[in-house]
Amino acid sequence: MAVQTLSSPEGASETLLPEWHEALFGIDLALLLSSPVYYGVGVPHGDGSAVLVVPGFMHGDTYLLLMNAWLRRLGYRPYYSRIGFNASCPNLLIKEILDPAIKEIVRETRGKLHLIGHSLGGTIARSVAVLRPRYIASVITLGSPIRQTRVHPTIFRDAETVRRYVVEHSLNVHAECMTSACTCDYMTSSQMPVPKRVRCTAIFTQNDGSVDWHSCRTGDPAVDVAVPGTHTGLVFNATAYSVIAQRLAGK
């Protein structure tokens, strides 16, 4: 399942909803705050395990505050990724930020941790699970491209702008960075299956207005879970939260 972080936007407008559809994420948030699930009612509670949440493209940890608060209410130990702004080479983010954070968490908790990643954060989380499986209990992706990526042309242009900036201003980055021609650890691991001992869940929405939802599935019905709502709203989605609670508990 090769992941192409930057792929041609041709045909994307035919498979994706209008980009303005993502503005409806506020409905997802309102439904979450009115749902018993957000207050820990009717879902399995945690065992004190660590959960690291990875933000999506062009985002940092701030928009994940509600999810982290919810995880804490359930009885988990949530950790922020320490990624201030996810607009850099994913390989560098893993090596310079996530690897040290994960090792510190494992030393502190003396156990494996769970990874949750939104959008690009999910593809990064899957790569970490491939590269560091001894540290990872499970990985849950939210609207994350697992197969060949197709996105709206505007998102493609933003990603290409970021890619060019990274290539021009970052050390130890070559011209193929963040493309399918790159052979870094991130891109190589993205093309490999997650080890079987790491539980996987791929949550997606067919109403995705940013990424072609077909690319967010593994093809395994035991792993893939469809929920209603928007791409952006997956981090504020009551149905997704219910699935997350079940999967973190190993159910």
Structural summary, described in words:
By secondary structure, this protein is of the alpha/beta class. It has a single domain (12-248), classed as Rossmann fold, CATH 3.40.50.1820. It has eight helices and six strands. The protein has helices spanning 12-15, 25-33, 65-74, 90-109, 120-131, 153-169, 185-190, 238-248, and strands spanning 50-54, 77-80, 113-118, 136-142, 199-204, 224-226. The protein has a six-stranded parallel sheet, with helices on both faces. Strand 3, helix 5 and strand 4 (136-142) form a beta-alpha-beta unit. The longest helix is centred in the middle third of the chain and has 20 residues, at 90-109. The radius of gyration is 17 Å and the shape is globular. The model is unreliable at 1-15 (pLDDT under 50).
